[in-house]
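Course assignment 3, question 2. Fill in each field.
Student: A.L.
Task: Predict the tertiary structure for the chain below.
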Amino acid sequence: MQSHTEKYSIHRIGVGGLCEHKNKILLVKIAYGPSKGKWILPGGLVERKETLSEAVEREMLEETGIQTKAKELLSARHMVTRKNNGEHASDLYLTFRVQYVTGDLQPCEEEVAKAEFIAFNQLATLRVGELVRHVIKQTASKQGPPKTSYQPSSPVKKKLKVFKYELYT
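Answer field:
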């Protein structure tokens, strides 16, 4: 019989932010790894004790110097990958529309070669990741499901030991 940890997936959850400001979209040029040189949406992995909206807001600030506010969930991508040790892992990536709040571009040099607000008509000339290009094309002008103010009842929160909760509908 499989153990609980063998049966259920190991998860990685990443977030990305689609920030439109003055008819331009905020992108970062990756400075490392297999995607080095590609332009993508700012983002990264969700940390422990962090909600999805907190994670995307933190990542936007860390990678670009721009303070944003998560507004709506635009897309979700899920895939099963094989880790270096041969185990399978569940990889979930969620894209949020984020609102520009304040700040000047200050890219995190360890991760990002450049951070720029780029006009939509310039995207075709850039080396943009396939997934990013698709998400931008499908969602840049659409409204996604907003984060709601629903919270589970206190007994449910206590039973499930809920620390933080967000619902997207």
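Instructor remarks: The chain is about 20% helix and 35% strand. The longest helix spans residues 52-64.
Grade: pending
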